[in-house]
Specification:
Rossmann fold; five-stranded parallel sheet; about 170 residues
Length: about 170
């Protein structure tokens, strides 16, 4: 059986404009240059929740138009400056679910995303988008740990005690 070469023609790069989410750009850029990939920068806006029964049926909100979303503008520009084809997409919904849905529906060959590295209570309350994507996506995933996550890990007294002790 001949070996099958992987082809990463289209890479999905989710962002929320946080510094941590932007840290995937250098790795995604290098990867895309190797495979001459097209970049799709995805921003998932959380829909506003209106709890007011007296208002009746409220029409669903519309996301920011993809070409006008300031959250995707900077990453798209950085990919284009590196000589890559890049487009933006802005949708409403749950971030992890939308990332997975887009990976199946848009012909995505790789998801490249940063992880915030949350732990403890914040992870329990907020959940981990990266972990949920990892569990549910059928697409390969390139994860980059944000610098903020590494700094937190270095400052953790439990980690320092474990390292010092053994």
């Amino acid at each position: 059986m001949p070996e099958e070469e992987l082809s990463f023609r289209k890479i999905l790069v989710p962002t929320d404009s946080s510094p941590a989410s932007m840290e995937v750009i250098p790795a995604a850029t290098r990867f895309a240059q190797l495979y001459d990939s097209e970049m799709v920068v995805l921003h998932v806006e959380m829909p506003p929740y209106v709890v007011a029964p007296e208002m009746g049926v409220v029409p669903p909100p519309r996301p920011t138009p993809s070409g006008e979303d300031p959250v995707t503008r900077r990453p798209v520009e950085r990919f284009q400056q590196a000589g890559l084809r890049a487009t933006s997409l802005t949708v409403l919904g749950d971030p992890a679910a939308e990332i997975v849905d887009q990976s199946y529906g848009a012909g995505i060959d790789l998801i490249a995303m940063a992880t915030h590295g949350r732990s403890g209570m914040s992870r329990w309350v907020l959940g981990s988008v990266a972990e949920r994507v990892l569990r549910h996506a059928g697409t390969p995933l390139l994860l980059v740990r944000g610098e903020g996550a590494r700094k937190t890990e270095r400052k953790s007294p439990g980690r320092a005690a474990a390292t010092a002790g053994g």
